[in-house]
Amino acid sequence: MSAQAGRGKQSPLVAIRDLAVAFDGVKVLHGIDLTVERGEAVGLVGESGCGKSVTWLAALGLLPKKADVTGSATLEGCELINAEPALLDATRGGRIAMIFQDPASALNPVIKLGKQVGEALALHRGLSGGAIRAEAKRLFDLVGIPDAARRLDAFPHELSGGQNQRVMIAMALAGEPDLLVADEPTTALDATIQAQILELLTLVRRETNMALVLISHDLGVISQTCDRVGVMYAGRIIETAQSDALFAQPLHPYTQGLLAALPPLEGVRRRLDPIEGNVPEPWNLPPGCSFAPRCPCRVDACEMRLPPLDLKAPGRLAACIRTPPLVQPQRQTEPVFA
Ligand SMILES: Nc1ncnc2c1ncn2[C@@H]1O[C@H](COP(=O)(O)OP(=O)(O)OP(=O)(O)O)[C@@H](O)[C@H]1O
């Protein structure tokens, strides 16, 4: 359970403010604002190259040295950007854990799984001896690895991809994180296993009150798992909303395009409409709205200036001059991502 539980709802667990990243003078992230509350599941969605991973890698100090990172990312008020390496080391894997798409590359192939989880338990929880094995087995049970005691002595290649992803989740949970950032955790898995891993993440979140950030290019994956969604395009957040509201009525034409490109739900016949064209390269952004060249709603004004991320309805922001407010928004007392 979070060390902060019971403190009352004040500042968000994580607050990212005006976060920008450039590589070799080319800006790939342009002033991201994003908050995550305790226990909340936030999805970050967008096509490849939109800046979803870089946002979190920057916040956790995981980008290469050549990256120029500005802005702020705080964990319960504690600044992480340009923080001392000791603070970042303690935060990563401890208060904030991250799992990635490919468990095989994150696990050490020559070390038994139990030992790998054990190292995380020793590092982040100070456990030793028999307590490590007992806790590692408990974590394997929690993430649904069958015959957990025996699997602790297995090597990664002896388990399937889905089971190794469960091991990665167990390792992430070893530090009892307040936030798990899962970057495309199911992309490499087949549909059935994918659904099981998403269910597992939801189950674990409910049992531990851990917050979850789920990064995916697949709006379907996000919809199953997240309370709130941020849609990214070309290094910016262009729409945010509660998941159900976003699915019921996507406001930004890009979000509408992502939804139209989703495979039909079982029993629902729907045409699959991929968005034509590609995300622009960061060094070659068009003037005005970055999505304008692909946008079916484009007018000349779209190419004149960058649309601000405006409040279109309570709890709903969208960066599009073609999207009128749904209802006259009341002054927001609980900002969505700001
Ligand atoms: N180390 C790096 N050096 C230079 N450019 C980088 C580096 N890492 C990321 N980028 C660039 O930053 C932009 C955002 O990348 P990012 O990986 O965040 O996108 P993404 O939305 O997570 O996409 P994907 O789903 O493919 O991971 C891309 O243009 C990418 O090429």
TrEMBL record:
Compartments where found: Cell inner membrane
GO MF assignments: ATP binding; ATP hydrolysis activity
Natural source organism: Bosea vaviloviae
Gene Ontology BP annotations: peptide transport; transmembrane transport
Keyword Metal-binding applies: no
Keyword Lipid biosynthesis: no
Domain ABC transporter: 14-259
PANTHER family: DIPEPTIDE TRANSPORT ATP-BINDING PROTEIN DPPD, OLIGOPEPTIDE TRANSPORT ATP-BINDING PROTEIN APPD
Membrane topology label: Peripheral membrane protein
Gene (UniProt): oppD
Family per similarity comment: Belongs to the ABC transporter superfamily.
This protein's GO CC annotations: plasma membrane
Keywords per UniProt: ATP-binding, Cell membrane, Membrane, Nucleotide-binding, Transport
Highest taxon of the lineage: Bacteria
Name listed for the protein in its UniProt record: Oligopeptide transporter ATP-binding component
Main location (coarse class): membrane
